[in-house]
């Protein structure tokens, strides 16, 4: 949706339901930020004593670092999606598809509160 378009009222989102969704987004954001700090700690380079550690242990350490980097990428993407959803609530655009502008189903928002697109535009 374009920034210049004024906010619309979602036909199925009451103020109470919207506040519940905001609280859920904030809860998920806090939880994710805690997880991100743990992941950041785990991603620090591992110092391996080449004499004391075998080849398989080095391979395990490298594989774990790779998995941690992938997790960090997913966490950063989700963090951005949660922040974006909270901003859409603030500017009155939450609950509408960013692709076609149609209202998102309340059930979709309950399951996936950071949803930006309807099922048709998602694919």
Description:
The chain is mostly helical and 123 residues long. It has a domain at 15-95. 60% of the residues lie in helices and 0% in strands. It has helices spanning 15-42, 55-90, 106-111, 119-122. Helix 1 (15-42) runs antiparallel to helix 2. The longest helix has 36 residues, at 55-90. It is elongated, with a radius of gyration of 20 Å. The two termini are 17 Å apart.
Describe the SSE topology:
Blueprint: H1 15-42, H2 55-90, H3 106-111, H4 119-122
Helix pairs in contact: 1-2
Order of helices and strands: HHHH
Record field, number of beta strands: 0
Radius of gyration (Å)? 20 Å
- The level of helicity is 55-70%
Shape: elongated
For the largest beta-sheet, the strand count, sense and barrel status come to: none
SS field, number of helical segments: 4
What's a quick, concise take on this entry?
This protein has 123 residues and is mainly alpha-helical. It is built from four helices and no strands.
Key phrases:
mainly alpha
